[in-house]
Design a protein that fits this description.
This protein is mainly α and about 350 residues long. The protein has 2 domains: about 270 residues, Fido-like domain (Fic-like fold), CATH 1.10.3290; about 60 residues, Winged helix-like DNA-binding domain superfamily/Winged helix DNA-binding domain (Arc Repressor Mutant, subunit A). The protein is built from 14 helices and 4 strands. Strands 1-2 form a two-stranded antiparallel sheet. Strands 3-4 form a two-stranded antiparallel ribbon. Strand 3 and strand 4 form a beta hairpin. It is globular, with a radius of gyration of 21 Å.
Length: about 350
């Protein structure tokens, strides 16, 4: 049976890469207030964009989807949900808003996690909201031939309530008594939560909401401006691979948590780097709108679509983005790749 012993985290053999990730994230945390004080109105727009992206991505990871148009209307409360997927999407929206606005007043207790889960399903007729699982569940995967197999057997249902109480208590001890680095303790908590798999449904979404809650409570607020859920979705294969690697022999207390810890640190650092990129471009008053778009390509590795640019530079209109992309393409500074819905652009030197 798994034992939650977060004092043992102080004995982990942390490699140089993880130490470097923690150090760089803390450097960005130190610059965070400077970023937040820049262009308040535009940052407010970033918050709204991140909320939509987070809600869409976290649900889409679980196969819960709607159209972009419907999602926007649901966020602007111009429509009501028309099916179960949309009911769960706006439930996630509301819980995300609660965490954004009240994270300082939400204690990490088992009963509060139950409340978050209940709120996730408050628009749904499903009776499961706010209740731990009543029957054992399994985590399945499908192989290349389409055959399903059991990837992991979570904790038995009858042990779930005590396990959640112990997990929350041990995390609190880790941060207040054991002085474990929060950037290590948070991913380990999320990993343990997912191995318990306390709910019959919604475990993945709740885990990502709890990630934001714990990061905010420890002063790492980048998830308000850059969607961590969206970054996880883009790196979904690595997400599942590291979860699988770090859950092996979890029941026997021999699992290696560092695979998942490293992955989550990379996601957080990636978010901070993107946040800095956006703030620096927005705060440079000397740059024209066209120059801001060019600056994005100068500082961005990989492809950028029109929708990517609109999200990164919310103050620039779509016609202006299209004109600038055409101009940059004609001058040979960027190259168009793919077509149709997958149309994107890369800096020519990268191609």
């Amino acid at each position: 049976m798994h034992i939650f012993d977060y004092q043992a985290l102080k004995e982990l053999k942390i490699d140089a890469e993880i130490l470097s990730l923690v150090s760089e994230i803390k450097e960005y945390k130190g610059k965070q207030n400077y970023f937040i004080n820049q262009k308040t109105a535009k940052l407010d727009k970033l918050v709204q964009i991140a909320k939509i992206q987070s809600t869409e991505a976290s649900n889409r990871i679980e196969g819960i989807i709607t159209t972009e148009k419907r999602l926007k209307e649901l966020f602007e409360e111009k429509t009501t949900p028309k099916n179960r997927d949309e009911q769960e999407i706006i439930g996630y929206r509301d819980v995300l808003n609660t965490i954004h606005e009240n994270y300082e007043h939400i204690p990490l207790k088992s009963n509060f996690i139950l409340q978050i889960h209940k709120n996730l399903y408050k628009y749904s007729a499903e009776p499961q909201g706010g209740k731990f699982k009543m029957i054992d569940n399994i985590i399945q995967e499908t192989d290349e031939k389409g055959k399903k197999f059991v990837r992991f057997k979570p904790l038995e249902a009858f042990l779930t309530n005590d396990a959640m109480e112990n997990l929350c208590a041990e995390y609190e001890k880790a941060t207040k008594l054991y002085f474990v680095e929060p950037l290590i303790a948070i991913p380990v908590f999320i990993l343990d939560f997912l191995c318990i798999h306390p709910f019959s449904d919604g475990n993945g979404r709740i885990s990502r909401l709890l990630t934001l809650l714990l990061l905010y409570q420890n002063g790492f607020e980048v998830g308000k401006y850059i969607s961590l859920e969206s970054l996880i979705e883009k790196n979904k294969d690595s997400y599942y691979f590291t979860l699988r690697a770090s859950s092996l022999e979890w029941h026997e207390n021999r699992n290696d948590v560092l695979f998942f810890v490293k992955y989550m640190l990379q996601i957080i650092l990636s978010a901070y780097r993107e946040f800095e990129e956006r703030v620096l471009v927005m705060s440079d008053k000397k740059l024209t709108k066209a120059q801001q778009i060019k600056e994005l390509f100068d500082n961005h590795l990989g492809k950028l679509s029109k929708s990517d640019i609109k999200k990164l530079l919310p103050g620039i209109s779509e016609p202006m983005i299209e004109k600038t992309l055409n101009d940059l393409t004609k001058t040979g500074l960027i190259k168009k790749v793919n077509s149709g819905k997958n149309t994107a652009y890369v800096k020519f030197a990268e191609f």
